[in-house]
Here is the input.
Amino acid sequence: MSGEEDDGSDKAERLAVRAMQAVLFALLVYTLVRARFGLALGVGFGLAVTLLPAVVRREYGYSLDPLLALWITLSIFIHTIGSLGPYDWWGWYDSVAHTVSAVLIAGIGYVILRTFEQHSAEIDVPGEFRALFIVVFVLAAGVFWELLEFGSGVAATLVGAKAPLAVKGVDDIVSDLVFNTLGAVILAVFGTGYLDGVVSFARRRLLE
Amino acid sequence: MSRRFAIAFAALTTMAIQGIWTIVRFYSDQLLGTEYIQSQADVQWDFVFVTLVALVFSGAFELYFKQADDAGSQEEPTVNET
Here is the structure.
């Protein structure tokens, strides 16, 4: 959906990506200077992920839809900033973060499904099933994520460290799952058109 | 639908239903006064077991279908080795 007629918003999206990367970079420098290496590791990893679209463009000559690149950066940005405090300050922040990143997870599920579907003659799914698949994929990923949080908590307790991914009760788990599902529905309804380019890219790179 | 895809989707669905079931139990406790969820650890261990069950059964189904398909299938045609 990134038509040439829409250059203005493409430009704004690229600018927003650069701005968030600049903030993350400044944050990385700051955490390194203050010798907060645990934080620096998280920030650095996030920053590296936001550079992935640029790497793909360089290595494979494929440009992601600017809105998609923006969404990847945005979910990393929200999570990284959140881990500095907002997760603890505001209850709603976690919900926003889960919704935004669930849209991305849903996108990954959709790309996987469509890539296989176009690759294999045996898989041929109707449109309604795609939406169902996206929601199922995100719910399962959500359960898996809670599993990782649980596992990391157990592991941290065993070595006597502070749990890196804190679970704050059953209501936290349930609201994570609910907002994950919201993100999946948002992608299923509005977002799939942005991903068809990625699907044909993935098919060319991975399966042929 | 290919065999592997069907199996993977079944495993995902198993986990997804556990997610929905957790949401339903939580709101039932909140709104209807039931006491399904006793503790956070309960919910988390449920996730662990459901994921294990999903993985183990996917593996079992994969093996089973492989055996049942012994006569050869589109994916793995039987080659006469003699």
Q: What stands out?
A: Chain B touches chain A through 27 residues (CB under 8 Å).
